[in-house]
Amino acid sequence: GAVVSQHPSRVICKSGTSVKIECRSLDFQATTMFWYRQFPKQSLMLMATSNEGSKATYEQGVEKDKFLINHASLTLSTLTVTSAHPEDSSFYICSARVSGGRGYGYTFGSGTRLTVV
Amino acid sequence: GQQLNQSPQSMFIQEGEDVSMNCTSSSIFNTWLWYKQEPGEGPVLLIALYKAGELTSNGRLTAQFGITRKDSFLNISASIPSDVGIYFCAGQSGGSNYKLTFGKGTLLTVNP
Questions:
Q1: Quick check: B39 contacting A, CB < 8 Å?
Q2: Cα–Cα distance for residue pair B109/B8, rounded to 1 Å
């Protein structure tokens, strides 16, 4: 089945530094990927839609200069949290849309736990 | 924006019991998906529903796409301890943005 690999699984960084999270589709091409943020005991909140070869589409309230998304190839999307602050600490999850026989589904990465100290 | 109302918020059951959870929406969805998430992991797809009225099973799990296209339920039969986790419904309304709308989740605890 379709597999999405997300790295790193955990990262601790100092306040003010930038962190890059990678999301790769391993056995399929993903023209569209999604980035979510999840706070403890809450649901997934869509941050942005990543489109291969074009600019990402950000949800309302998400700072595009803060959360830089690059989708340079059909198998890789990256999320860079720039000038991270403690309030950026969260669980970030990527997802890719997968076309199948009956329709399409969405496969998720295993998530990245970001802690900003 | 679109919202999904998922209930119950949490459930505490004994091993062997059956479980039912559901999601409702004020707007129509073309696809309903049910996911399970365990701590520190991403959601894993359990069942995908693409047609109104569709009833689909995956082992002990059964889900249905409501005939009005505004609701879906997930049943788990004969629960076991490894069923513990958070279950999310998600809907996709069509259109070119392909965005999913998630419910708030149902936390399931199974007592051995």
A1: no
A2: 12
DSSP A88-117: G-EEEEEEEEEE-SSSEEEEE---EEEEE-
Structure token digits, residue A12:
């601790």
Would you call B33 and A6 a contact, using CB atoms and an 8 Å cutoff? no
Which helix (H) or strand (E) segment holds residue B110: the answer is strand B106-111
- Give per-residue pLDDT as tens, A6-44: 999 999 999 999 999 999 999 888 889 999 999 998 999
C-alpha distance from A40 to closest chain B C-alpha (Å):
10
Distance of residue B58 Cα from the nearest chain A Cα, in angstroms? 16
Rounded to the nearest angstrom, the gap between the alpha carbon of residue B40 and the centroid of all alpha carbons in its chain is 19
